[in-house]
Amino acid sequence: MTSVDANVSVVDELVGQLAELRREGEAAVGGASSAQELESLRVEYLGRKGRLTSILRRLGELGPGERPAVGAEANRVKDALSALLDERAAGFAAGADAGPRVDLTLPGRHRWKGGVHPVTQVVDEICEIFRDLGFTRVGGPEVETTEYNFTKLNTPLDHPAADMHDTFYLADGIVLRTHTSPVQARVMEAFKPPIRVVVPGTVYRRDPFDASHAPGFEQLEGLAVDEGITFADFKATITAFVHRFFGGAVPVRFRPSFFPFTEPSAEVDVRCQICGGSGCPACKHTGWMEIMGSGMVHPNVFTACGYDPERYTGYAFGMGPGRIAMQRYGVTDIRMWYEDDMRFLGQFT
Ligand code: PHE
After folding, report:
1. How far is CA 14 from CA 18, 52, 53, 242, in A?
2. Element (H, E) at 263
3. Dihedrals φ, ψ of 203, to 5°?
4. Is 181 in the pocket of ligand 1 (CB under 6 A)?
5. Which pLDDT belongs to residue 130?
6. Using an 8 Å Cβ cutoff, are 52 and 78 in contact?
7. Are 160 and 64 members of one domain?
8. Tens digits of per-residue pLDDT, 7-23?
9. pLDDT at 24 > cutoff 60
10. pLDDT of residue 300
11. Is the pLDDT of residue 99 over 70?
């Protein structure tokens, strides 16, 4: 009985040691902070002269019936620790425990956030400059009557601009506006002078879709009406605008032209922004870029809108922000603005 009791206590002692070995080993392996530390723990716990070996050596003190159970428990502890060691070692190899692995040589992944279309950006910028010059931004309908689009603007319906070949007719007397000028008449009918407005918007013409034409495009109308406004006011205002928009004292010239709703009329040109004036395909080798049509409001337009042409004078202008944006960015095909190719448009945000 004594010897059985003695063995029972050795069995208990060894099983207790194994449990403690497992607990300590798991804590140590779990807390290891490098692959090297794991290796020395493996030697310390499972090595030939390690702690598990020294427990196993004492199996000889047990009777043959008692050894298998303690041996099996020793194997379970060995397998558990060895699996944990392998797992953590694999973690170090993959870098999982070495903090986030960052490859600083990879190009950044930025999320597409959307943005304002480059032509709209130019529209906004032009309106900002005119706001500083005292102009209010207004809008008007894209579906217009022929009366506002043509007749009130001193343009008879047998004028070539009103031709079916040039204009989208939606119904008899109803068109997609061919310019923003009808908003001149709408503003004059709604408000009394003094008037200073800018009117950005889309206009439509039965033009081919090619490098320099689009059937729908942006225009920006300007109108100033008051007593005593002269062409000198117009020149000063437009010169101030050009200098602010293009930056610096960019040369501007006013060239005689014709529009039914202005008299006299002028085209405004600025020094070609692409070649600097030496001549290039973009300016057709003239060194100048046309940026707007303009002139003093025709007395017949004032009469058609209920203003006294003896009392009031004013100037009007119409520019194409799409064309102006092309000049600014050196874009040579107007279709680029309208194809919605994000690889292109994304460069402007
Ligand atoms: N509406 C004219 C056009 O579309 C431009 C313009 C506006 C001319 C105002 C004179 C005055 O070509």
Report:
1. 6, 10, 12, 95
2. strand 262-271
3. -130, 160
4. yes
5. 98
6. yes
7. no
8. 678 888 888 999 999 99
9. yes
10. 98
11. no
From CA 316, how far away is CA 225, in angstroms rounded? 9
Atom of ligand 1 nearest to the CA of 179: 4
| Cβ–ligand 1 contact at 205 (below 6 Å) | no
Domain count, the chain: 2
CA atoms of 306 and 295, how far apart (whole Å): 20
Same structural domain for residues 75 and 156?
Answer: no
How far is residue 16 CA from its own chain's centroid?
68
CA atoms of 325 and 289, how far apart (whole Å): 12
Q: What is the CATH number of the domain that holds 206?
A: 3.30.930.10
Q: In whole angstroms, give the CA distance from residue 173 to residue 150.
A: 10
pLDDT at 248 over 70: yes
Residues 24 and 167 in one domain: no
Q: Ligand 1: does its nearest atom lie under 6 Å from the Cβ of 317?
A: yes
156 and 51 in a common domain: no
Percent of the chain with pLDDT over 70: 96
Integer Cα distance of 246 and 321 in angstroms: 13
If you average pLDDT over residues 120-147, what whole number do you get? 98
The answer on 89 and 128 residing in a single domain is no
Are 14 and 145 found together in one domain? no
Mean pLDDT score, 135-155: 97
148, 153, 181: residue to mutate for ligand 1 pocket, most atoms within 8 A of CB: 181
Q: What is the pLDDT of residue 1?
A: 43
| Cβ 298 under 6 angstroms from ligand 1 | no
Give the domain extent around 55: 3-94
Q: Is 256 in the same domain as 343?
A: yes
Q: What is the distance between the alpha carbons of residues 159 and 172, in angstroms, rounded to a whole number?
A: 16
- pLDDT for res 100: 67
Residue 103 included in any domain: no
Query: Which pLDDT does position 2 carry in this prediction?
Result: 45
Q: Model confidence at 147, in pLDDT bands (50, 70, 90)? A: very high
In a domain, 48, yes or no: yes
